[in-house]
Amino acid sequence: MDNKQTGSRDPVNPQGIGLWEMIKDFFKTIGNWFADNWHWVVIVIVGVVLLILCIMFAPTIFLCLKVLLKAFAWLFKGLWWLICLPFKGIAALVNKIKERKAEKAA
To answer: Which residue, 17, 38, 16, 18, is CA-closest to 29?
Structure first.
């Protein structure tokens, strides 16, 4: 009996291939163009799936957008009121001063 081992140190079968490497190998079997541009194919597929989901949930999305736009309009009106308030106060003060001057003159 001999205790010598034959063969190379590197394993013959690949071990630990990741998901992306498997996808790339699959596209290499289809053609070199797909091997170079497989990420665009994945982006297109994901885009189509998202488009289908948006179409399915369009009423809900539109309702949420309507509520968000109303909240934004309410916030904008409140900020506008807050910004204009000092100017309205100054105008009221000036008008009151004019009224008192008119009363004293009469």
So the answer is: 38
* Rounded Cα–Cα distance for residues 89 and 70 (Å): 28
Q: Specify whether the CB–CB gap between 28 and 35 falls below 8 A.
A: yes
| Closest of 12, 33, 13, 34 to residue 23, by C-alpha | 34
- Average pLDDT of the residues of the chain: 85
How far apart are alpha carbons 20 and 39 in whole angstroms?
Answer: 10
Please state at what angle helix 32-56 crosses helix 58-105, rounded to 10 degrees: 60
E strand map for the chain: none
13-33 residue pLDDT tens: 656 677 888 887 777 777 777
Burial label for 69, CB within 10 Å (0-12, 13-18, 19+), is: exposed
